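Please, structure for the following, as tokens.
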Amino acid sequence: NLKRLLPAIQRELREASGRRARLRAEARLNQLALYDLLTGLPNRQFFMELLNKALHRAQRAKRLVALLFLDLDRFKMVNDLLGHVAGDELLKSVAMRLKSVARASDTVARLSGDEFTIILEDVLSADSVARFSQKILQALTQGFKVSGRDFFITGSIGVALYPNDGTDMATLLKSADAAMYAAKEYTGTIRFYSPSINARTMEQLTLETGLRRALDQNEFVLHYQPVVEFVTRRIVSVEALLHWQHPDRGLLAPDSFIPLVEGSDLIVSIGEWVLRTACEQLRTWQATGFPELRMTVNVAPRQLTKQDFIKRLVRILRETGIKPACLELELTERTLIQGMEWVVPQLQALRDLGIQIDIDDFGAEYSSLNYLRRLPVTGLKIDRSFIRGITTNLEDASIAAMIISLAHSLNLKVIAEGVETLRQAAVLQNKGCAEMQGYYFSPPLPARTLTTLFITGNGIIATRV
């Protein structure tokens, strides 16, 4: 009897094995269709389904739902500098970090690239969402190991609440996206949606579209602000500041569009134009009778990550005939600290060429002696927020004095920016700061106007009392 049953048993086993294989294959296909292969988080398609269900539950229960859009700041730097394998490694680490902060009832998904989203159900108030969002940002700032290196990254979060900011999925998504776009203006921040953000977002998008045309249409212009040796009133250097001669809105100051430039791929081409134009202008001034004049140019993180940045810079110096020692590059504290591992070799290569490196807005961020000793920099620029209160606020005056003392102890030059009154300048001189910059001496000026000042004043700034 067993012999007669054996073929049937074997057939049943084969069919069972086939069913299990089909179930495994179906489960795998389901995984591929609904989850991101890299991070294991729900993908865009599955996220949309989950959001739709969350909104239906909230509608029935009359509860709040919070939708968070998270974008990693300067993530492209990782890909540019370390490659896509390192970028993928960072994304996986970020996904794990986000899941560790989220509750079991929250949904963490990856939409695309470096963009993540989180759905919070049964929200009690906007304050509770703000606290949760802050936890996310704090978790990111703890740093990551990427290809064996320590890497620090920040995120920008946009928040939209159901039903306040949208009663349907499309509107809520649009609101969260607009809020995130607003948050990225300052990086590392949280922005809740408000109706005014829509207008602001549209304005920014219009500006960004115009920026892509501006370089080709020669709409950019440099203005130059002198840095003055206070005792002699002699101009020792000038800082090149990018302005935009907009065809409809007139002359735009840097603050109104530079964040957009630095967040896009335009920074490389525009940054190179700034460097070349500034060096060409410096050559003109040096030939006019000011051979020791220095030129200061601000450099963005995206420029430094380009492997051929130094090669292009050397070519500009060679073609314009500018000595490397006459060029000063300014970088912010945030740039230096967040990319310490890759910034130091780049800066050292620049220093080996003889180019000077200054830390801009010093004191506004980290101001750690430990990191300062590791950086091959030549100067510190005291953040203007301390200069503003130096004659009225004891704390600001003390911080400014500490920065000046720190610079002297490390044999670094120190510059005070944002000097607007004689009293501020006198206090700074008394504390040992020799070089100053600000409207007390001169606002940023077009090259032609500053050339006249050089010639008529023999490089001396005539200040008012």
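Residues 2-34 form the longest helix (33 residues). The mean pLDDT is 88.
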